[in-house]
Structures are given as C-alpha cells and as structure tokens.
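Technical appendix A lists one of the benchmark inputs used to test multi-chain prediction within the project. The record comprises two sequence entries:
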Amino acid sequence: MRLKRRVDQQVDRLYSVILHGMALFPFARLLWDLIFGRFVDPVLAIISRTGRVSLNLLLLSLACTPLYTLTGFALLVRARRTLGLYAFLYVTLHFLTFAGWDYGFDLRLLWQAVFYQRYVVAGIASGLILLVLAITSTRGWQRRLGKWWKRLQRLVYLAAALAVLHVAWLLKAPRGALPYAVLVAVLLALRIPPVARVVRDVRRRWGRESPSPSGER
Amino acid sequence: MIPIKSSEITPEHIYLSRRKFMQAAGLLAANAALLAACGPQPGASVGTEEAPLPAPTATEEAPSLLATPTLSAEADELGNPLTSLDAVLTYNNFYEFTLSPHGVASLSQGFLTSPWTVAVGGLVNKPKTFDISDLRKFEQEERIYRMRCVEAWAMVIPWLGFPLSKLLKEVEPLSTAKYVRFETLYDIEEMPGQKDRSFPWPYVEGLRLDEAMHDLTLLATGLYGRNLRPQNGAPVRLVVPWKYGFKSIKSIVKIDLVEEMPVSMWMAMNPREYGFWANVNPKVAHPRWSQATERRIGENRRRETLFFNGYADEVASLYPDLDSRDWYY
C-alpha cells in the first residue's frame, strides 16, 4: 500500500509539472518572441495571442468535468481550477496590453474604446466574471460561501459565452467564432443532469467491459 | 491641410534617380547590390512570427529597384514614417488564402502571377485584355499612401503603380458607364481560402466612375520599389487610399464599366457593415466598433483616424452632403 501511495505521489507531481508547464509555455513563448523582437506588431500580436490562449484554457477548464464524467480520471477535477486561474492570468495580460500599451491608459480614448464597441463590453464583462471567480477560488472562500460557492462558480459558463461573443463581434467575418460557440454549447450541454447521466452510464458500461479502468479510484 | 498634387507625392529626384537607374540597368548585379545595401533589411529589423521570407526570384525582382532612400521618401506628405517592408510583407488581410493575417505570406508564396491578364470591358468603346507586362509599361510612379483597414489597423506604404484613369482612358468608357466593377481571380487551387464556401467568391469591388478616375486612385503593380508579392495582391491591385482597405481589391483579373452600382463581395455578405462607399470617417462608428482611432502597425501608441484618411481636401468634393452616414459604410 505504501508503495502505491508513493507511486501516486510521483504521478501527481509529474502531472502537476506537465499541467503548469503546458499552461505557462505560451507565456514563455510570448516573452521569448518579445525579447527577441519577433513580432511585426507586438501590441496586436500580444493582444490576440493572450486572448486566444485565455479562451483555449478556459474551454479546457470547462472540458474537465465532462471528461471526468466520461473517464473517471480524478486528477481532471483538480486541473479545472488550475486551468481556470491560468485563463484569468492570460486575460489579465490581454487587458493590460489593451488598456496600458495600446491605449496608454488614456481615459478619453479608452472611454470611447469601451463604450462604443460592444465587443469590448462583452470582453470586459467576461474578464470581470473571471476576476470574481479567481478571487473566490480559494478554500477559504469556498467555506465562507457554502452552497453559493458552486452557484457562483457556474458563472464560468457565462464568462465563456461572453468571451465567444467578444470574438464574434470583433471579427470582420463573425462566423470565425463558430467553432468556439459550438464547443461552449456542447460543454454546457454535457453538464445538464440527464445528459451527464447518459455519459456516466456509457463509462460504467465500458468499465464493465474492461475490468481495470485506469485512474478509477 | 495642403492639397497634394500627384507630382508632390513622390519627390521628383526620386523619379529621376529611378529613371537613371533603369537606364543603367545593364548592371543588374549592381542593382541587386543596391537593393541589398539600401533596402530595409528584414534580418536586421525583425524576424517575424512566420518563417523567413523566401528569397525573391530573379524574374520577380529584376525590373525595378528601390530608389535611394531620402528623408522625404521615408514618410508620407504628413510626415508619417513608412511601415517597415517586413510588416507590409507579413501582416496581410487576404481571405483568399487564410483569415489569419500572419498566415498569408507563407501560404501564398506559390501563387502563380504569370501568365496573367486583366480583361477590361463592359460599357467601353475599345475593350481590351491587358497582359501584366502591358500594365507595367504604363509609366510607374511611386505613391506613399496611408492604408486604413476597416478593422482599425493602418500602415503607410510606398506603392508603385499608375493612376487607374490612364487605363480607363485607353478603353474609352461610354457615356452610359457610371461605375467600375473589379474582380479578383477565382481559382480554388491557387487560392485555398476560396474553398470556404461561406464567402460568395470571387471577391468583387466597385467604384463610382468619378472615384475611379480620381488621380489618387492607383492601379499598383509594386511596393517598396519591387513588384508586388502574392500576399500584397500580386500582380496587380487597386489602391484607394481614402476608403477602408477592403475596397482596394487585390489580384485583379477583370475590370468592367457598368451602369448599375456593382454588388461587392462584402456588400453581398453584410451591406450594413461593409457597404459600397466605405469612406474613412473617424466620427462614424462601424456597427460593432469605433473608428475614432487606429493602430499603425509597428507603432506603440494609437493614432487618431483622419477624415477620409487624411485625403479630405482631395476627395471630399466627390461626395455631396458629407453628413450622411451612407458615405461611410
């Protein structure tokens, strides 16, 4: 048993390294490209890249629960929070590049940029939700909020939907956001209890066919 | 603002120096050396997000060369510095290849621009099909223009080309011709982005005849003293500097003079957002975003967008009742 626990710890550690490494890789690449002057237009490149990475991480985070339902792989549940927090990190970089670098915190220009452009409103709304979710992501807040914590954290679906809207509204041809929209819709649908039950049943059936489903604890 | 005559757009000594170079063009090797010596050096300034640019082929590069840069040639008539050649070659909106602005350069390198003809017809006395070499025989001028995309990014580009009016005069438009309709090549093998059926290809654009005849309206065959690269609309494209960039149609194969206002591809997709007129106006917001400011590619701070992109003195008279929103989308 002790050996098994030690192996589990090692697996956990390896898994953490991989997860953080993957989430930080885009940041490292961004710094690299910036330092070595590999951007034709750093502002546009950083804004679009951090935005894209953030949305991808957010969707990965949302995919964790359905994937857990499907596979029963418990580590996925922990990855959910980590990936969500990284999504928030990139969205913060995204916002700071937009407001600070691009607009130089010029409030007059920013006022126009925000309120005359609905895609910015959608983006800021999405970012504010992520801010609240990030602040309340700790164990302490989880305890303080009790049953409300889960309800609050479900706003992440709204944040994702707003982020997709943000992308659709800023593209010259909005249908470019369609794959993201479909993905969010599917991930949300997988959380609807009857659907989730069907998925769980599928897993159980597979489980019977293969007697030792990996990661099932 | 001081009105610009076309002769002022490129200082005369640059024409002359180019002419002189052309006469001395027996020394192709010298030309190449000169290009290497005084051209913007991609290696020295910035690599890019994409692969390094493939070496231009001899046939592409031989006919023209960069004029010796002087202070006046490094900026437009308002003193705006040129956007780097590197940015011009690697940040492109060209949906016929891909929707990603950084992907166009690499995807378009195999694009065949020879043989290439442009059929000019419709309501004209003398319809004619021009070979690309015929178009290059028109006296080529360098014009430094600001380019303002409807998505609020901008560049300053030294084009090489000739006023569209010269071509139109040659085919003699009939009095019934009111508009000019332009069409891009449609070839899904050559332009993979055209496989995306959600766009009503081919790309079509149009101008009213007086806009098309305006001296600022350029048929460009080159930029930065070289022939156009595929990502910039090779071998021949339109440049209408006072309108949003999507009006400046690329890789043109057909020009028709017509009586009715042509329906452009973007009008067919979304006339409210990308209409026929599309004149730059910072005060009239796009339905989804503000046009008050722009990001000049390669610069750190936003700039305020100018009325008619800074060409109001030259072109505002084309449009009665400037307050109507219709002129701007």
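The interface with chain A takes residues 45-49, 84, 86-87, 90-91, 93, 95, 99, 102, 150-151, 153, 198-199, 246, 269, 274, 285, 288-290, 292-293, 295, 297-298, 300-302 of chain B (CB under 8 Å). Chain B is about 20% helix and 20% strand. Comparable benchmark entries are summarised in Table A2.
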